[in-house]
Amino acid sequence: MITASNLELRAGSRILLADTTLRIQQGDRIGLVGRNGAGKTTTLKVLAGEGEPYTGEVRHGSDLGYLPQDPREGDLSVSAKDRVLSARGLDVLVRDMEKAQTAMSELVDDAARDKAINRYGRLEERFSSLGGYAAESEAARICANLGLADRILAQPMGTLSGGQRRRVELARILFAASEAGAGGKSDTILLLDEPTNHLDADSITWLRGFLKSHEGGLVVISHDVELLGEVVNKVWFLDATRGELDHYNMSWQRYLDARATDEKRRRRERANAEKKASALHQQAAKLGAKATKAVAAKNMARRADQMLADLDDTRQADRVAKIKFPAPASCGKTPLTAEGLSKSYGSLEIFTGVDLAIDRGSKVVVLGLNGAGKTTLLRLLGGMEPADTGSVVPGHGLRLGYYAQEHETLDHDATVWENIRHLSPDTGAQELRNLLGSFLFTGEQLEQPTGTLSGGEKTRLALASLVSSAANVLLLDEPTNNLDPASREQVLDALRSFDGAVVLVTHDPGAVEALEPERVILLPDGTEDHWSADYLDLVQLA
Ligand SMILES: Nc1ncnc2c1ncn2[C@@H]1O[C@H](COP(=O)(O)OP(=O)(O)OP(=O)(O)O)[C@@H](O)[C@H]1O
Ligand SMILES: [Mg+2]
């Protein structure tokens, strides 16, 4: 059980959550939802004991497994497999066994070899009495289900992509939680922040099944409505403008119905309040004409203003970023060409001999399984890293805009304002301020260090920086990740109306439909084909 009492959470001077009590018990499967920046990640971090609340206390009565939204740094030299096994303290044993094994086969001195054999025997006995063999195969099963191939598990964490690292962390947590406790079931509480980011469709389906049958307690933050629909039996809705968290002890579908009813009631109340306020104002104006009633009139007007101000608060919660992409600068017929691109990491060949020509205004989708090199191809095209062979040839008038999945185009130590300033030095300050405003960055938030932005806010800022660039070729790597449904719709609209060329990598079929691509490039072969609806099934698998 986790209990949090008298909780208050703040972001800078803003109150995210005030005077709240939260409890997570066995059998709870809670979906934590709310708009981007509402404070979901902050709440989960505090529940996990990794963040300090402004006030209040968090108590832990059982083990927990916490998956943060951003991959944690940690020791990057350990292998992915050891990282997973370390969840049950098996990594050291396995490593010692391997060492003893090597010694057994390599030592020539009889006495020393006998010692190694004895040592191996002792370690092996401990390993098997701890259920090591079963555990090892269970870990392998979980990893396979999360799309982590053996070859990846052998690599040191430092060589893995952000997405792969995150999958290893998820595997580690699920491995720890799948350990049967005394009563035959695990009582580990899982706290998962957007666990489906970076997962392919098969892994997501498997994860849903795993979470559905997890009995130890679970809080999951997710924008994946299918996952919520299948897994959760309670919903926590975080409303940062009110600083409150609403509890719904019901399934996702019943919650959606309840919210729709609530929304209707709120709209009615809003209309009522507006009517009352305007009546009060009229009254006040009449009263104000008489000198003796001036004070009463003033009070009345103040009450009306207060009523409307309360309304503004709720309105702000409903605000949605107006995301649009730039008006593209003019360019030649084929602004971007690539010839014979190859890339390997060490002995691992990602792709070879990829040719590509991006015509003005053309829309291209890049498909390929996890690890086929989609992000790598975009990075080569964007000049973020050099190709091993081949070249990227800019055409006449090319202006590239690159949206990176891991937001590496943003300087995390600089403020929001400094970032946008730096990325568009030629645009006037007022224009930039307007632009940021339409992407919902105003006031204090302009001075916030970019590293402290929420996942969805970082996505929004990176997209904003594209707009001022007048790019005529956009390279977009998973531009809808992390976004709440309303903001995602905005990105889809922006995609629909953009006149320039787009090269898109995504798992989101909605994004592909919005783009209406003419062509598809299949990795790792680099084969090009006309787009047809048949490819849509591949998008989610990719
Ligand atoms: N040091 C800070 N100063 C000011 N504001 C901060 C700071 N750190 C975080 N914030 C703000 O706190 C708010 C809550 O962030 P949090 O990451 O909890 O949101 P979230 O609900 O998880 O959003 P998302 O859906 O985008 O992941 C955000 O608006 C963020 O910008
Ligand atoms: Mg978050």
Task: Give the topology.
Layout lengths: L1 E10 L2 E11 L4 E5 L6 H8 L7 E6 L3 E4 L12 H6 L5 H16 L3 H20 L2 H14 L4 H4 L8 H16 L11 E5 L7 H12 L5 E4 L3 H7 L2 E6 L4 E5 L3 H37 L5 H24 L18 E10 L2 E11 L4 E5 L6 H8 L7 E6 L5 E4 L12 H8 L5 H10 L16 H13 L5 E5 L7 H13 L3 E5 L3 H7 L3 E4 L4 E4 L5 H6 L1
Parallel strand pairs: 3-7, 3-8, 5-6, 6-7, 12-16, 12-17, 14-15, 15-16
Antiparallel strand pairs: 1-2, 1-4, 8-9, 10-11, 10-13, 17-18
Bound molecules: adenosine-5'-triphosphate (ATP) and magnesium ion.
The site of adenosine-5'-triphosphate (ATP) has 20 residues, from α1 and α15.
Describe this structure in words.
By secondary structure, the chain is α/β, with parallel strands linked by helices. Among the domains are: about 55 residues, no CATH class; about 200 residues, 3-Layer(aba) Sandwich (Rossmann fold). About 40% of the residues lie in helices and about 20% in strands. A six-stranded mixed sheet has the order 5-6-7-3-8-9, with helices on both faces. β15, α16 and β16 form a beta-alpha-beta unit. It is globular, with a radius of gyration of 27 Å.
